[in-house]
Automatic annotation (TrEMBL):
It comes from the Bacteria. It holds the Pfam family TetR_N. Residues 56-75 bind DNA. The lineage of its organism: Bacteria, Bacillati, Actinomycetota, Actinomycetes, Actinopolysporales. This is TetR family transcriptional regulator.
Amino acid sequence: MTIRRGSSGNPERTLELLWRTSATPTRHGPPQGLTIEAVVDTATEIADTEGIDAVTMRNVGRKLGTAPMTLYTYVPGKAELLDLMLDAGYARMSRSEPAGSDWRSRLEAVAHENRALLRTHPWMGEISTNRPILGPGALGKYEYELRALEGTGLDDVDMDAALTQLLEFVRSSVRAEIDTSEYLRRSGMDDRQWWERAGSALSSLIDEHEYPLASRVGTAVGTSQGTAYAPEHAYRFGLARLLDGFAALVAEGAGRSGE
């Protein structure tokens, strides 16, 4: 998987586009009604159906019925377009803030919402946001998600670090789920079929007494899950353990403040 860098274009021009502070380009003749929103929505549709590699100015222009050079009067290049696509996706994502819930329930909601977003738009997980998107959609998302940690006693730096760890966990778990699904599709066998063949061959090659732990645990996992890797179990288990770690950090801070 190729990781593409977000916020790698002209920062001033990108911010103008994200916040819509620049004037609409002067157009001479068709296409009438072309807007930045139309360009972004079309690029998003291509990414959703064909993958992020298919998002080119040529393909977007073809979908819109206009020449690629016309698009450059709206968006300078693909780097800026990716930022606009991400920000629009963030602006549209579901945000359900449970009233009166504790911080753990709020963070679970944040994780589930981000997981749903990345499952719907897998390409969003292929763009690095180490340099953040500074648009209204991204900042609104950040503001909303930080509220899940407000009141925990964590300082501002730890709040940001905890949120970052949560979002990176969700991103990696969705990526693993997508990779697993794609591998199964390409192999033409589901995991149960594969294990029936591989397990039979393996049993004739090894002595389970030489690998007692691997044999015991592997058998237990296969019996329980029917596969060596179950994405749903991995996500639920990992999220619970991550939140347990945050709970220890919150308790540690509460202990210090009570001294």
